[in-house]
C-alpha cells in the first residue's frame, strides 16, 4: 500500500517549503485569500513555488475566485492543482478546471451526515475532494480554523475520486485519524505551526511520521 500522502498548506516562507519537502510532503499549498493569515501575493507564491522540488504537487487554494484572479495566477505561478474552498457550485468547479487546464480539488465542510449528501455531485466534476470540518457560522475563514469533525462520519466511505482529510489535524492525532478513517491523504496547516502562517519544521516531520504510522495501525 502506498504511504499516506500529506499536504502542508498555507506555506508563506522559503524555509517552510524546504522543511515540508525534506519531511516528505506530497503537496505544498499556497493560499490566495486576503482574509487568511496565510495569504500570499501572486508574486510571493511564484517565488515559493519555484522552490518546490520536482515530485511535490504545488496547490493553489482559492475561495470563490474571479476569472481575473485565476488568469493572473495562471500567468505567474507554476501550479499543479487548484483547490477551491468557497461556495463554488459543481458547474463552477468544472469551469475552473477547464479555464486553468489543471486538476481541481474541491473542499467540502462536514459536520453531519446531511453534509455528505452533496459530496457525490462534486466527485463527478472534481479530480479530488477535500473533506474538512465545517466552518462555524459567521467564521471569516472557510478552513484553517483548527477544528476537527466527527471522523466516524467518513469511516469506510468511498467516493468516485481520491479524497483528503482535513480539519484540526495535528502530530498528536494524525495517527488516529488515519487509523479511524482509512484516509490515504491528510491536509494540515495550523496543526504544524508555531504562529499563524509560520510553520514548525519539527511539527511537520512529526506529523508526516505519525500519519504514516497510522496507516500500519489496526483500524479503529
| Termini gap | 18 Å
Helix content bin:
25-40%
Low-confidence stretches: none
Order of strands across the widest beta sheet? 7-6-5-4-3-2-1-8
Main β-sheet description: 8 strands, parallel
Count of alpha and pi helical runs: 7
Main structural class: alpha/beta
H/E series? EHEHEHEHEHEEHEEEH
Task: Give the overall average pLDDT.
Answer: 91
**Overall 3D shape:** globular
Radius of gyration (CA) equals 16 Å
Beta-strand content bin: 15-25%
Number of strands: 10
Which properties best describe this structure?
8-stranded parallel sheet; two-stranded antiparallel sheet; 20% strand; 220 residues; 10 strands; alpha/beta; globular; 31% helix; single chain
SSE layout and pairings?
Layout: E1 5-8, H1 14-23, E2 27-32, H2 42-49, E3 57-62, H3 67-76, E4 81-84, H4 90-100, E5 104-110, H5 119-123, E6 128-133, E7 163-165, H6 174-181, E8 185-188, E9 193-195, E10 198-199, H7 201-216
Parallel strand pairs: 1-2, 1-8, 2-3, 3-4, 4-5, 5-6, 6-7
Antiparallel strand pairs: 9-10
